[in-house]
Amino acid sequence: MSKRVAITGNEAVAQAMRQINPDVVAAYPITPQTEIVQIFSTFVADGNVDTEFVTVESEHSAMSATIGASAAGARAMTATSSQGLALMWEMLYIAAGLRLPIVAPVVNRALSAPINIHCDHSDTMGARDSGWVQIYSENAQEAYDNLIQAVRIAEHADVQIPAMVCMDGFIVSHGMENAELLDDHVVRSFVGQRTPRHSLLDVDNPATFGALDFADWYFEHRRQLADAQTYVKGVVLDVAKEFAKISGRNYGLFESYRLDDAELAVVVLNSAAGTAKAVVDDLRQQGMKAGLLKIRLFRPFPHDEIVAALAGKKAIAVLDRADGLSTMGGPVFVDVRSAMYDAPGPKMVNYIYGLGGRDVDTEQIAGVYWDLARIAETGKVTSPVTYLGVRE
Amino acid sequence: MANLKELTKKDELLCGGHRACAGCAAPIVVRQALKALDTPVVVGCATGCLEVTTTIYPFTSWNVPFVHSAFENSAATISGAEAAYRALKKKGKITRDIQFIAFGGDGGTYDIGFQSLSGAMERGHDMVYICYDNEAYMNTGIQRSSATPKGASTTTSPAGKVIPGKVQFRKDLTAVMAAHNIPYVAQAVPSQWNDFITKVQKALAVEGPAFINVLAPCRLGWQFDPAETIDIMRGAVETCFWPLYEVENGVWKVTHKPREKKPVRGWLEKQGRFRHLFRPENEHIIEEIQADIDRNWAALLARAGAA
Hints:
The complex is a heterodimer.
Chain A: E1 3-8, H1 9-20, E2 24-26, H2 34-45, E3 52-54, H3 59-71, E4 76-77, H4 82-97, E5 103-108, H5 122-125, E6 133-136, H6 140-155, E7 163-168, E8 176-181, H7 184-191, E9 208-209, H8 218-247, E10 254-257, E11 264-268, H9 272-285, E12 290-295, E13 297-299, H10 303-310, E14 315-320, H11 331-339, E15 347-353, H12 362-378, E16 385-388
Helix pairs in contact in A: 1-2, 1-6, 1-7, 3-4, 6-8, 9-12
Chain B: H1 4-9, H2 26-35, E1 41-45, H3 49-54, E2 66-67, H4 74-90, E3 99-105, H5 106-111, H6 114-123, E4 128-133, H7 173-178, E5 184-188, H8 193-205, E6 210-215, H9 219-222, H10 229-238, E7 244-248, E8 251-256, H11 264-269, H12 283-303
Helix pairs in contact in B: 4-6
């Protein structure tokens, strides 16, 4: 029997890790992820998991040890935030390039400088081209569900790519919510055992991991990694279907909220989607045809499906909780707008919001919809990129 | 003690055909180290000469499982593989006994990989870390490292008109590793193959981490005839520039005491990297190097109770 509990995002993720019972976890504490490492340590200390917990001296070593463990055939996990993910950056690319199906929860936090411990997405957005699968979660329930599914996605024979599951620092990691946890045995049978194709521990069939590619092979191996990305969305949907059977909860590549007949749409990731849904409900009551698209799978980017969902809208606003600093808007905006280039053209604008944990409220998001209404009516975009809720 | 006849019968776990320079000591270090094994091994390696010359896709020289991930993390990477081994053995998925060896050059060990090494040793993984110390960043073209000896000319500490090569003395990494209070630490060199292989056997036998620092002359960086690699190694030992010793469970022991400690001058003379020291205005540096060797040798003997 699954059970409904009051739980924080960090607790929910730590519980998912306990139920996954990975062979190796190598992790280093960092706010706001620290609780995950602490809670998991108690599982190790109390014998609730079989995991070898490697208490590394840095996030660089966390990812390096996770890579070593995964190459040795283990199911290996880590967890981090912000500067920790930045310190892993070199190794993220190597984990993906070596095709190691590592799974890591990432608790989104702003990057320095200035130093700031609160939520934005600049950490994981910086890793978006590393080759990792990126799945975003609105709340603790989704973070829990996504982490369990990520094991199956990453390890799928057609994929073999590491996956990070993102949730908002403090807002979700430390906020108490109602969530439903599955039974241990249900999760364990859902994730099953990892069956690696090659392993360092297969000493009778010695293999070399991490060989040197020159110009005669590097391109082909990177092309294979790109090809594997094309299988991800199908696997994400298949795994979601199976997960629905054990949980009753349905997941797609993204969530459409009152989007089908909407004329004005907002695109957003993670916890701000909850706030935006309340705004949509309110504006619908006022007669505005407002809708929302919450991206779940951001990498690889499900462009065809997103274009199909947004085609025919009159105006679209993409909300980015990270700035690309290109003077052309945030990373989600750049991708969505690029995907929409060939679609019959809704006007598109970008809002950078919530950096460093700045609250975004219903009034601000309602303001975005009213901006869209004006754009739809006049056909004119006066400000393609707007900083929302900042003192100018 | 290793038996040469027996050793020659063992499989070559690092095959020929790799692209290391003629006279390179790194493959000699690896071949001898792997001769010490009686059980299967998983090898890790930092980015560097050894890695790039032995794993050019689609070829590999390694007849054992091998992993390279990056430059500064050979120890952390192998520590993860060792953790996986413990986990999978506990679950009964692995039944064989397997050893773990991480290799790194002095760049990947003394400098950029030092934190990763220190962490892995402190955590107590059952692994052996072997540094092949060629005393500079040879793979990128002979830049100075913290293992480069004082006076040596490298491409980032060139012997110039006002600065005569590397200004600083090298870091005593072996002593630093001994300060980690791990079960086994040693300093070795392949010219004394029996001493080296015996040390690897001891390092493999202990439960927990072990560290061996092996001098690995680079004929390009040190500038000597490639036929003289082993002689250069011998000279390093005879001058006490590279003393052979071990620290077993905290007990220091000199494993080879030269019958006659030779002056360093003759050894420096054989290497182009020290050529500029023989100009009259730089002669004092040779004296400083000699004084440093004398001081360190006396300190080692005192530490080992062999003075």
